[in-house]
Hints:
It is a single chain. The termini are far apart. By secondary structure, this protein is of the alpha/beta class. 40% of the residues lie in helices and 16% in strands. Helix 5 links the parallel strand 5 and strand 6.
Amino acid sequence: xxxxxxxxxxxxxxxxxxxxxxxxxxxxxxxxxxxxxxxxxxxxxxxxxxxxxxxxxxxxxxxxxxxxxxxxxxxxxxxxxxxxxxxxxxxxxxxxxxxxxxxxxxxxxxxxxxxxxxxxxxxxxxxxxxxxxxxxxxxxxxxxxxxxxxxxxxxxxxxxxxxxxxxxxxxxxxxxxxxxxxxxxxxxxxxxxxxxxxxxxxxxxxxxxxxxxxxxxxxxxxxxxxxxxxxxxxxxxxxxxxxxxxxxxxxxxxxxxxxxxxxxxxxxxxxxxxxxxxxxxxxxxxxxxxxxxxxxxxxxxxxxxxxxxxxxxxxxxxxxxxxxxxxxxxxxxxxxxxxxxxxxxxxxxxxxxxxxxxxxxxxxxxxxxxxxxxxxxxxxxxxxxx
Length: 386
């Protein structure tokens, strides 16, 4: 094999300070133990409710605790009673007719968009959507228009001027944007979608478990469950397990089961992942305190570092706090200085975010304390004054 193409690309990334590497680390409660043994307060995890750190792992199966994997794809023999129960629990949480599980949130997003949208359709996709949604749009072979982030007026203009008579139109958006921590204007998108007979698909990757009276996400919090038929979610963030799901009308779920390649041709979720997700979904439905706590911490940190948010602004309680630094080197240096102070706060650089907007991304968890957040706020204050 000729490796010149790959080594040249890696050398270019190295020169620009953007080469990424896998670093072995150990998780110890709310601490991350770095490769040199340093214990850092971990503000880089997406384990928003702390469920991934449950002290007693759930039994993989009530029928056979020796099962590690699922043995096959869902349609062959990998869909067990436990998989079915979890999908039913998710449908109840989401107030939909049905739900289906995927091997990852990425597969759920990319597979769903690529399967439901067809050549000749039109997709309007937010510019800051997750890579999995972007890939799904590309794979669908539909016409795709990327609209400026959160710009509902632009969406309406496209529906008026670009959409052809009779053309099926999809609007695709995250509910919470992972690298900015803001919330999509879902109510306005619903109003425009209904006016022009478009279908809205929402990825609740960073909303599931955190918002709404039942904990299903931003769609529920905004009272839009009846208006947004198809919702995608992950089991790897607030749920603290692994995998993804799609919830929606029975006909949509059945269509995915019969046509969605990432679902049909992937081995089903492992028994352990299903058991862990089931426990977390049950807890989300029964105990609101973890999500109440982490949302309160989010507001506390924002107030401490001077991010202005109104008392009724939902984005103030998103447990993703962003501090844009600018250059790649400045963000890396800021992350390094926080590490020296005992905090793990990752620097996010291009291509994940646009050039010139490298940033620190702070993720809060229900296992954090008020003192943890206050200490981080003090460290950030010293950093910005330096």
